[in-house]
């Protein structure tokens, strides 16, 4: 029976090749999108899901609330652990301190490793909470003495190539030239996906021998460093509410007077292990990996669902339209004794065959799609994930759902046919479902239309952001950062001097970051005038006397600081207004209290954007490097070019790098950033959305138009005789084409009417994230609508023209 | 051979066409015994096909009683009714109504699928039938590749494969030339001799003459027997 069904299903598929192709293409696109996006969701949701009792593991994090907003810090004060250690709700509690040594030496081999990553200082409890497999050494004793280290297998191979793990115990490494540390254990790296990427675990007491000694000895409540992490594992019967209460009490108890004065408060939160991978507020340990975003994933899932729906709709439309062709077979089968149930299962079987075929194609396509969407897909997400049992099961479930979704309704319609009227050729069944098909077509085109308008407007906004004047010069500028370990100013000056001698370079300035960057340095200022005390936060940018000139910052009043070390401020307009000055000239010569010292305002600069245009302009001041003797803020050399033509640029960049190497002979830490590229990175997320929308638009247009094509082919074929008669009666090609196109274009027009407000609303809410936004122009809607009608017309005419062109004699003779 | 196969007792069928009530079959009284070969005659629209469809349970009477093998069909549930006709009734159509996507073999096999007969048994039955009708050589062809007469042979083979007691034939030779017609009618009378009850609707006096009993219909009424 089953074999018979599949046989006839296959023959039907082959008989209606065009329709089958349209169905398969639609379903394949929908399924491929679902597969890839499903894999991504699976990938991100299976991070750190393998830890024993993972649902009882929490990270304690700090939130700082102030009138300016809430700031999140993944670390907690070192004082917290002792205060909560004796709480009976905790099964285990561990603190670890992330600290990257500048150098690790294996003296025996005479090898040296600079800035090894993922090094932490911790204790045995860490290994009680996180279950590492020990290859060598003993968990309970490995970290109980200072100057011991546990290495992961990977790191051990790096430090001690070709040595068996068991032989490593007792070997010595020298950290930061002075600390001798003995290897006391080797653990396996986590084999599954994890954000716990640490490679070296040094016993916690060893921290006393580093520059963090003071911090550790004092364990001050007021000091929070994101390197200081605290993890707890709750007991099975733990009371989360009471833990939170205790944390709240502690936070309150240790609020200092200054914080109260500035209305600032701190809260400790328990962050579940499963939240770490997604929560951007607190971040993950490996910054180089993009953090998973639940909102991005759900947007992607939405796209997949829409594409899949569009594919299913094509299936429903084409199959109900074709129903009359199958009607005879159904009638006969009924007279031969088939029950309705049997017919339904036969048609579902046919649907499943198509869906299954599409799924096979999709799996092949997915491999390619993973590459196309590399911006979204995490690097190590591989095709192998398809083998995961959960994925296999989900795919089967999806296929089942898609089969039901697209096959059930047509099956119901088909199996309902009245045997007698079908066999007598009194067929009208196809006609009755016209309204449903129209509704579904409108639905399809509405989705496609929304995508088109969305793409246009998102593109417009991104263009606007990238091209809007930031308030300072952004093109033809590069910044070269000094080596991280190199703090000495003389070398920077030497380097700057060498750069000045390059003829293509227009101007050079030493300073901190460029005016717009990801880094901020914020402090609080107070200004006292005759009536009141005004407080504000203030961001710094640091630069030499040429900084404002190089970035073409607009000085509205006064002047810039006289030299690099004088204690003078150049404030921006936002700060000017916040401090209550009416005009820039009023502020000149007034003094602000910064870190308890009076600091004069010598100039006022025009506002510029310090970050992406999503954020507002913050109060800011430009200043020199007045604490130079203790800590120089100057870490970059900014260079502007005379012109930025590409052939010149290349040779100029080589010269800049050569000069760098002649000054910093020992290091390879060469970092150069183009100002305009930095600004583009502000909008990476928007660009991703834009790319995603482009794809969704293209695919939804494709699927919808294919569906439309199918319907047009079908209706036109049914009207061949009518077309013949009309031609004989003298209708022109154009008249016939208009007649045939009219009803379909009407559907597209209705879709446009429905889509317009929806698209407007969607874009409107998306734009709310931006401080600076383009207008939602009507042109985008008109262009979007025109594009949709153009595509639809193209598809419709493809078939109708040939039908209208056909010789009427042929169509009439056949009757 | 005088077992009663079916009986109609004042059976009527009316349908609503717009606001008019149209009577298609009016007060039909008919007894059919096993082994009979009945020819229904009458002009187009006289109700021959409707009567056949109603007897074949594809349509139902809207009034009166219909008893098949002693069971009251008019008060039966759809499920039991379909079980009944699956078991006892075979159809032959004017337009053959073979399934275009299936081969001759598969077309003949289809009714057996719906009776849930085992694969090996199906094979044997279909092979027998092909043999009997001398169409073994055509078994892998599709309906379009056959002549009208051959298609009707397949149609009859398919109707017979389930070993029905009653064959309902609606103008079985309507689309055939006279030579093919004769062959098909000869076949019917042979089948009738083998014990199958046949009711056929026909326009042709010549074909009607093969029957053991001729019933004339006009405007939904039996006018002459």
From TrEMBL, chain A:
Transmembrane segments: 21-43, 296-318, 351-370, 390-415, 436-458, 692-714, 744-764, 776-796
InterPro entries from the UniProt entry: ABC3_permease_C, MacB_PCD, Macrolide_Exporter_MacB
Membrane topology: Multi-pass membrane protein
Domain MacB-like periplasmic core: 20-249, 439-611
Main location group: membrane
Domain ABC3 transporter permease C-terminal span(s) in chain numbering: 302-418, 698-807
Places the protein is found: Cell membrane
Keywords in alphabetical order: Cell membrane, Membrane, Transmembrane, Transmembrane helix
UniProt-recorded name of the protein: ABC transporter permease
Organism the protein comes from: Winogradskyella haliclonae
Automatic annotation (TrEMBL), chain B:
Transcription regulation keyword on record: no
Domain called ABC transporter: residue spans: 6-225
Single GO MF annotation: ATP binding
Alphabetical keyword list: ATP-binding, Nucleotide-binding, Transport
Protein name, as recorded: ABC transporter ATP-binding protein
Species of origin: Winogradskyella haliclonae
